[in-house]
Amino acid sequence: MNGIDRRTPLEILLVEDDPGDVAMTREALGESKMHVNLRVVTNGEEAVSYLRRMHPFEQAQRPDLVLLDLNLPRLSGREVLAIVKADPDLLRIPVVVLTTSEAEEDVGRSYDLHANAYVTKPVGFASFVSVVRQIDDFFLTIVRLPGR
């Protein structure tokens, strides 16, 4: 579909500090229609270092998609998003804000910072897995990603 080579693993960077949400995301992506390499960093500074391939991530693969929590230690998700979208080498990477916040100011601010989508994490395992699978289906099987 859309010329995507299904043999080439898709690289997803999950920026999430909650181990439970990391586990649920792994579970949801484990049944992906495509082979997915999920990389996880747990704070905003690590996210920026990973994306810019700075120590200790010099060998990191460029992600095809970033799933970004807003409430992170060191640098917030908003700060990470601003850095990514201001960097000409990174700005084309789609960023989906995946967070618990339903605050209208967080939604608006994320889109002001050029998030590609804003998704509120649902409560409950089954609902969370369903949402992540829908993100997977949309961004990985319907949308044509840069460089793919």
Structure, described:
The chain has helices spanning 19-30, 44-51, 77-86, 104-112, 125-142, and strands at 10-15, 36-41, 65-68, 95-99, 117-120. It is an alpha/beta fold and 148 residues long. The chain has a single domain, classed as Response regulator (Rossmann fold), CATH 3.40.50. A five-stranded parallel sheet has the order 2-1-3-4-5, sandwiched between helices. The chain is globular and about 35 Å long. The relative contact order is 0.20. The mean pLDDT is 90.
Q: How many strands in all? A: 5
Q: What strand order characterises the main sheet?
A: 2-1-3-4-5
Write the CATH homologous superfamily.
Answer: Response regulator
Please identify, by name, the CATH architecture: 3-Layer(aba) Sandwich
